[in-house]
Design a protein that fits this description.
This protein has eleven helices and 36 strands. The protein has 555 residues and is an alpha+beta fold. It is globular and about 80 Å long.
Length: 555
């Protein structure tokens, strides 16, 4: 039998060319393993020594039941037909002696567990984590909505039994747009508008697909009939816009626009429209056709692209990416003449959803998840092969998740994902022969050594970056946020907070604001001016004036 080191080398060499999304972390050879079961969010592995459960680290095995030996059923009972082995295709490329003897595999989080030739091989994803669910339709911070159930904090609700729309979390309240609207609060579900799509349902307000907060207990509910002003306190719906074809919210900056400009932007029947969220009146911003369905002023008459989805992609509101009915990814720029097309990218799959995260534009389709690199305008087709569901995407300041018919894909580290994406594409492009494989192995090793060696210069390079960030903070003291800094310097949250051991951007912002406030109080500057310069509210400054005056530290 080959030694573990030789086996590992064989795996690693083949892995470099087969799938750079996974790396082998452990091979268990001390028992005979039969199959892998995912049960109640835990991974169980059957063996000739009993059933083992994988501990939270993802690598170690803990005995669960010594009495059940051999192959097991999904409910962890013994499979009496377990002596019969069926070989299946491996989810990743693996070499001999394992390539033709795979009997089972399972995904959980960022780990992949493969049973082959009686050994358990544990992979760790370098690109994303995967969580199995049945046909995911919506994702939020603490929830997953699917056709097979709604899960909040990993607990399945009894009702509603499914969702076809979005789940939105607002402080302690979670709204479930399942066709109607249900509220989850304090562990209880309350139906605010019941529409279960049955023949007995009146569907008075149509099918509710999404909901947006516009003020205190006031929301915009997106329906198949139009846009409703929903008052949570009175549980009342008021139709303020009737749909012409289909309402497509212009995502990404919705909350910012509502909060800062009192505007909600959307597409309907090839028109770009806006609702003023205080007066609840609508106006047409860009119109493809020369008719006016609303008695409002048409600002531009050139929006001629039939879109199925669109996002706003820049802080200044000038760049947009949209998906057309003709399978194109379109890039627009706002100008005095309207939204002007500046580039188009053909896609091999029919897309339905577009999202972005820093330098990456994600395009979901029924065949996979494709990616556009904004900086180089390079398309990576079907980076993840799965059937993704429309609008099943959720992102925060440091991660993004996508829902498919099989589960949730979560990308935590965009910087590493981007590097892995470029490397994988490079390897696949040049993987044409065995000689090329050998060459690329050594090339990969050399690159790894160079990168490893270059980390010695990391601190000196980071000094310059930190200096620039500090200057940026001081120049924009009143308005600067961590998100501003991440966008300005194209750096993710984790990297930003680990540039230097003694540098915390959030602490640096606070220290500079405090010192500035102290100095201006000493100079007897008016509170209104101090507020304008530091970004602190006047009430906060008045309340904490003497605390500021006691500050002696410097930045």
């Amino acid at each position: 039998m080959l030694s573990k080191k030789i086996i590992f080398f064989l795996f690693l060499s083949n892995f470099c060319f087969g799938s750079s999304n996974y790396q082998i972390k452990s091979i268990k050879t001390d028992k005979i393993f039969y199959n892998v079961i995912l049960n109640d969010y835990e991974v169980y592995v059957s063996s000739n020594h009993g059933i083992f459960v994988v501990d939270p680290s993802g690598f170690d095995l803990i005995i669960y039941d010594k009495s059940v030996k051999g192959k097991i059923h999904p409910d962890l009972s013994k499979n009496l037909n377990g002596l019969k082995l069926n070989f299946i295709d491996s989810p990743v490329l693996i070499p001999e002696p394992y390539s033709r003897t795979v009997t089972d595999f399972a995904y959980k989080g960022k780990f992949l567990y493969v049973v082959s030739k009686g050994d358990l091989i544990i992979y760790e994803s370098t690109a994303y984590e995967f969580y199995p669910f049945g046909s995911v339709r919506s994702i939020s911070e603490n929830s997953v909505g699917s056709y097979s159930g709604i899960f909040i904090n990993e607990k399945k609700l009894k009702k509603p039994g499914y969702t076809d729309g979005q789940i939105k979390e607002f402080e302690e309240t979670i709204f479930i747009c399942y066709n109607g609207i249900a509220e989850f609060n304090d562990g209880q579900v309350k139906f605010l508008y019941n529409n279960d799509n049955s023949k007995f349902s009146s569907a008075k307000y149509g099918t509710i697909l999404d909901i947006f907060l516009i003020g205190d207990s006031k929301y915009l509910a997106i329906s198949s009939k139009g846009i409703y002003h929903y008052n949570y306190k009175s549980n009342s719906f008021n139709l303020i816009y009737s749909v012409e074809k289909k309402i497509i919210p212009i995502r990404n900056k919705i909350e910012n626009r509502i909060q800062n400009n009192n505007e909600f932007h959307f597409i309907d029947n090839n028109k770009y429209l806006s609702i003023e969220t205080k007066s609840l009146t609508a106006k047409v911003l860009y119109n493809n056709f020369k008719y006016k369905s609303l008695k409002t002023k048409v600002l531009y008459d050139n929006f001629k692209y039939k879109l199925t989805d669109i996002i706003e992609c820049s802080n200044d509101g000038n760049i947009y990416y949209g998906i057309s009915e003709s399978n194109l990814l379109l890039k627009f720029k706002r100008s005095i003449n309207g939204l002007e097309l500046i580039n188009s990218y053909p896609l091999i799959s029919k897309p339905h959803t577009v999202a972005d995260f820093r330098d990456l534009v994600f395009i979901s389709s029924n065949n996979g998840l494709s990616i556009l690199l904004k900086s180089t305008e390079e398309i990576f087709d079907n980076v993840i092969s799965d059937e993704f569901n429309k609008s099943a995407v959720y992102k925060t300041k440091n991660k993004i998740s996508f829902g498919s018919i099989h589960g949730v894909y979560k990308i935590d580290n965009i910087t590493d994902f981007k590097k892995n994406l470029i490397l994988q594409n490079s390897i696949q492009t040049n993987n044409q022969s065995y000689k090329n494989e050998i060459l690329l192995i050594f090339l990969s090793l050399i690159i790894t050594l160079i990168i490893y060696k270059s980390t010695g210069n990391k601190n000196s390079l980071n000094v310059d970056i930190v200096k620039e960030i500090k200057n940026f903070i001081k120049e924009n003291l009143a308005t600067v946020t961590l998100v501003n800094i991440q966008d300005k310097f194209d750096i993710d949250y984790n990297a930003l907070n680990n540039l230097q051991e003694d540098f915390s951007p959030a602490k640096f912002i606070k220290q500079n604001r405090n010192i500035k406030a102290r100095d201006m109080f000493i100079e007897n500057q008016p509170v209104s001016k101090i507020s304008l310069i530091t970004g602190y509210s006047q009430s906060y400054l008045i309340k904490n004036k003497y605390k500021f005056l006691k500050i002696t530290s410097t930045t």
